[in-house]
Design goal:
Strand order of the largest sheet: 3-9-8-5-6
Largest sheet: 5 strands, mixed
Shape: globular
Radius of gyration: 34 Å
Strand content: 35-45%
Number of strands: 49
Structural class: mainly beta
């Protein structure tokens, strides 16, 4: 049997089918239930997507990775302004260990930041991973990942394979279009071949039946992918023989032939306006009303639901592409018992992307020249399309581009983020320079998996619970249990103290639910911060163990092997190492010189004590300092201050005590004072639960002194200042039962990229300038006219500069722009 090409195959199929312009919609119970359950599932299980643009792909240990994160709503691709925290991990692929972790603050769906690589970081391949907390409700296969290389002096990484080492068998998978081979029905079988490293491998071979007759020959046409055509016969088993790299042939079994069933085959290439879906079967049915169901959906949006009668053995439907959003669509065929039996992915290309043009005033400049760039963003019709962009300018000799088809914001948003597994050279399918990209993309759709949901879950109404909520700020979540990890048996009162690096502190109180779960949301702190959580249940906290979810992170799963490692030739590698080391050494010398100058200055002035951020008032009217003498035998704070401050009347004792400041009354009677703990208002019950051993002092404000707190302080103010709340208190020393002290990362501080300006002379300009990244700007917004202007200065290198601009509009249209500039 000869191999049919794409057009010949569908021309052959058309001879035996009844052509319909559209399937007739049936109003039956299954279709109603499918629509209702699918819409419910999509609403309750929304999707988020993340993309990172980095300044380059290879770094020397000690350098900085400059990053911009983009957040999108996964269903519509519009800017995601809900999640405010973006997690970024740098994973050592060999050790399967997270080496660096940061939390970027997302503002209006954009999250700029950086990762500083330690000087001691081992050389090798690393995986940059990014995700939001909500994305953890799905498989980590949908996290953003990107392969980076970290280099060190001493030579390229990796050990060449032994000369006589045996080459492992290729991984070759054969996938019938739609999912199965059916007796007597012409079928297309896609295949994909990869090496043991996960990289594509070009192959050729042939298929034999059980009689050892040659049925068809085949060869891959793109990155190890291709397809063959076959008409299975009853009682036959088919085996493919594939030539291995060393020249021998290895056998691979094709999927078993089914005696009965249905096929769904798709033509997405012949027409720019319609998708043709061919449905053929060899089933027998005595029920004239028996029918199959065809469903088309894109990113949680139902596009087409229709019935296919079993009375006809062959039918074809035309689906209008204009009804689909741009991107991957999933076609599913359900049999007459409402079970999914065939599935096919297609890509609907509507060119809903922005064109990003980068224009310099000249094509060539001299060293240290001032370079002005005009960035223009337009839609497919050439109309201005305001967009948010990021721009990286690198020295092409020091940072060569190893793969011009590597992932971009376009390929990730429209392709990779909806597929599992590795997509090799993803931007190939969106580069207009490749005239055959549509054909190759359709081949990819036949060989790639898509599993964001399972139809059985949708139809059963089983919506997986949302375990990880959307974060509109940093969060502290966890659980309080007994030492034996059993339920605590009721609510626990909690006190949170957040000690920031600027010595300021925040105090919060709350309680757990009946099972001991707690959560504090929408927090805001930067850099590493010490957090103390203390639980109280009854009169003691000794039987409490507090856990914190933020100490747990997603497991390291290398879901995509580093298919495109950065490979240097020897000269380029040596030049990169030499120039980068020179520049980093100069930077170190400058820092050391600054430190020497600072050490030489002796300051003899008296050090000013920083104000206590917990106190918004000046001097208190009275203060009671807590010590071992006055707290001995006392249970509550009111027991300690009773009788020690004139005008403060405490009645009762223990937890039933009441307090009033003399003169605080109106026509309604006595007014209770305002209680403040470390600057945070709190009710009397909360104050009474604080141990007297945790209190440093209590300030009393009367009359006019309390006016700073407004009308709520008409009864005066009792300000409780705890030992832990003091800026000088080291929370890390806490080890009391029922107390958890942990250092947690806050938002990563955003550093400004340093780029020298040579239009103003400065002493430091005498040093040579051979930076690899000359310019990085993560926040460029084109205006209503679609234009933005940026500028930077060339370095001392006579080289070629490579410019890469990525970004998207608020409506989710992505775009990529490239340009080069010569420096002479």
């Amino acid at each position: 049997m000869r191999l049919l090409n794409h057009r010949s195959f569908f021309a052959f199929i058309l001879l035996s089918v009844t052509i319909l312009t559209a399937f007739r919609h049936f109003d039956d119970d299954f279709v109603k239930r499918l629509i209702e359950q699918f819409e419910r599932y999509s609403i309750e299980r929304p999707v988020e997507k993340v993309y990172l643009h980095t300044d380059r792909e290879a770094y020397l240990a000690g350098e900085t990775i400059w990053i911009k994160g983009y957040l999108f709503g996964g269903n519509t691709h519009t800017a995601d302004t809900i999640s405010k925290v973006l997690y970024v991990d740098l994973i050592d692929v060999a050790a399967k260990q997270v080496r660096l972790r940061a939390q970027f603050r997302a503002i209006a769906s954009y999250a700029p930041g950086q990762l500083a690589l330690p000087d001691s970081l081992p050389a090798g391949s690393y995986q940059l991973r990014a995700y939001t907390n909500f994305m953890r409700n799905y498989s980590d296969a949908y996290f953003f990942t990107k392969t980076l290389a970290v280099l060190r002096t001493g030579g390229p990484t990796g050990t060449p394979p032994a000369a006589n080492a045996a080459t492992p068998r290729l991984d070759v998978q054969f996938m019938p279009e739609g999912g199965q081979l059916i007796e007597g029905l012409d079928s297309r079988v896609a295949f994909r071949a990869t090496s043991v490293s996960g990289r594509s491998q070009a192959i050729q071979g042939f298929v034999l039946d059980s009689r050892k007759d040659t049925i068809v020959g085949f060869a891959s046409t793109h990155l190890g992918m291709g397809y063959l055509s076959i008409k299975p016969e009853a009682g036959q088993q088919y085996t493919a023989f594939v030539r291995q790299p060393e020249g021998t042939f290895t056998s691979y079994a094709l999927p078993a032939v089914q005696p009965q069933g249905a096929l769904m085959q798709v033509d997405n290439l012949s027409s720019k306006d319609n998708v043709r879906v061919y449905v053929r079967h060899n089933k027998t049915s005595t029920d004239p009303a028996a029918a199959m169901t065809l469903v088309a959906q894109t990113r949680g949006q139902l596009i087409h639901v229709a019935k296919v009668s079993l009375a006809k053995k062959s039918s074809v439907a035309q689906l209008t592409k204009a009804q689909f959003p741009e991107g991957i669509a999933q076609l599913t065929l359900f049999d007459e018992t409402n079970k999914p039996i065939c599935e096919r992915l297609i890509f609907v290309d509507k060119n809903e992307r922005i064109n990003v043009r980068v224009k310099a005033e000249k094509s060539a400049y001299r060293t240290r020249d001032h370079i002005n760039l005009t960035l223009t963003t337009t839609d497919a019709d050439g109309s201005p399309a305001p967009a948010n962009l990021s721009l990286a300018v690198v020295d092409d000799r020091l940072s060569p581009e190893t793969d011009s088809n590597r992932a971009s914001i376009t390929s990730h948003l429209l392709l990779e983020s909806d597929l599992t597994g590795t997509i090799e050279q993803p931007d190939y399918y969106f580069n207009p320079a490749h005239a055959d990209r549509a054909l190759k993309l359709d081949l990819l759709m036949m060989t790639q998996g898509w599993r964001r949901f399972v139809w059985a879950d949708v139809l059963s109404g089983t919506v997986p619970p949302v375990t990880f909520p959307v974060e509109r700020g940093l969060a502290l979540t966890g659980r309080v249990v007994r030492p034996n990890q059993k339920d605590i048996g009721g609510k626990v009162r909690l006190t949170f103290i957040v000690a920031k690096r600027d010595s300021s502190r925040e105090m919060m109180t709350g309680e757990t639910d009946e099972r001991g779960n707690y959560a504090a949301y929408d927090l805001d702190f930067t850099d590493t911060t010490t957090v103390l959580i203390q639980g109280t249940k009854g009169k003691t906290n000794r039987d409490l163990v507090i856990t914190l979810d933020q100490l747990l992170t997603p497991p390291v799963t290398i879901v995509r092997p580093p298919l495109n490692p950065v490979e240097f030739d020897r000269d380029a590698y040596d030049e990169f190492i030499r120039r980068t080391n020179e520049y980093m050494e100069i930077e170190r010398q400058i820092r050391n010189n600054r430190e020497v100058l600072l050490q030489a200055v002796t300051v003899k002035a008296k050090k000013n004590q920083p104000p206590d951020s917990r106190k918004i008032y000046g001097a208190a009217d009275a203060t009671v300092k807590f010590d071992q003498n006055n707290t001995a035998g006392r249970i509550t704070i009111l027991d300690v201050i009773q009788g020690r401050v004139a005008g403060v009347q405490v009645t009762g004792s223990g937890f039933s005590a009441k307090v009033q400041i003399r003169g605080a009354a109106n026509f309604g009677g006595a007014i209770e004072p305002l209680f403040v703990v470390d600057g945070t208002p709190m009710d009397l019950q909360g104050v009474m639960s604080i141990s007297v051993n945790d209190v440093d002092q209590v300030d009393i404000l009367k009359g006019g002194s309390a006016a700073i707190y407004g009308s709520r302080a008409a009864g005066g103010v009792i300000s409780v200042l705890t030992k832990r709340g003091s800026p000088d208190y080291d929370l890390a020393k806490e080890a009391a039962p029922g107390t958890l002290v942990a250092k947690l990362p806050g938002y990563a501080p955003v550093r400004e990229f340093y780029a020298p300006r040579y239009d103003v002379k400065k002493p430091e300009h005498i040093r040579p300038d051979y930076r690899t990244t000359l310019y990085w700007n993560p926040q460029i917004q084109t205006g209503a006219d679609g234009k933005a202007v940026v500028s930077f200065f060339a370095s001392d290198a006579k080289t070629k500069l490579r410019l890469r601009v990525e970004g998207a509009t608020a409506t989710g249209m992505p775009g990529l722009g490239r340009q080069t500039i010569r420096i002479e």
